[in-house]
């Protein structure tokens, strides 16, 4: 999806040229280690998606929140989106 690439690029910029924004703050160590904050959010968003599915509401929104935070983790870890694409291609049957 083109939009995922676009958001990924914005996130790389937020990591490398921090501004006062949600994703920049998440990727910066401040009080709490950045990685811990990101992983905590992924845990929360997983739980929110599970609840959304069980209640059959807001599934798209919660899935987007989870995928967004996974993207933040990949950017933080310096893993390129192409690596994810390659992995999916490798698995394709
Ligand atoms: N796609 C998203 C996106 N999806 C979700 N979110 C944020 O992820 C957070 C989700 O957390 P929650 O649902 O728990 O809501 P919350 O209670 O507000 O969050 P917390 O108080 O727990 O941190 C919200 O603050 C959302 O705004 C996003 N924030 C940004 N983006 C994209 O990322 C780019 C960079 O964003 P910023 O640098 O943060 O502006 C933007 O251009 C957007 O395209």
Automatic annotation (TrEMBL):
UniProtKB keywords: Amino-acid biosynthesis, ATP-binding, Cytoplasm, Histidine biosynthesis, Hydrolase, Nucleotide-binding
Tell whether Cell wall biogenesis/degradation is among the UniProt keywords.
Answer: no
Which domain of life does this protein belong to? Archaea
The Gene Ontology CC terms held by the record are:
cytoplasm
A UniProt-annotated Pfam family? PRA-PH
SUPFAM superfamilies linked to this entry: all-alpha NTP pyrophosphatases
Q: What is its EC number?
A: 3.6.1.31
Protein's recorded name = Phosphoribosyl-ATP pyrophosphatase
Species per Swiss-Prot/TrEMBL record? Methanothermus fervidus (strain ATCC 43054 / DSM 2088 / JCM 10308 / V24 S)
Q: What is the lineage of its organism?
A: Archaea, Methanobacteriati, Methanobacteriota, Methanomada group, Methanobacteria
């Amino acid at each position: 999806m083109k939009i995922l690439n676009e958001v990924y690029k914005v996130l790389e910029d937020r990591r490398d040229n921090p501004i006062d924004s949600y994703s920049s703050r998440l990727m910066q160590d401040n009080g709490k280690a950045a990685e811990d904050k990101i992983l905590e959010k992924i845990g929360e968003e997983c739980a929110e998606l599970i609840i959304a599915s069980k209640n059959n509401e807001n599934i798209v929104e919660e899935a987007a929140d989870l995928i967004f935070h996974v993207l933040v983790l990949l950017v933080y870890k310096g893993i390129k989106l192409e690596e994810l694409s390659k992995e999916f291609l490798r698995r394709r049957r």
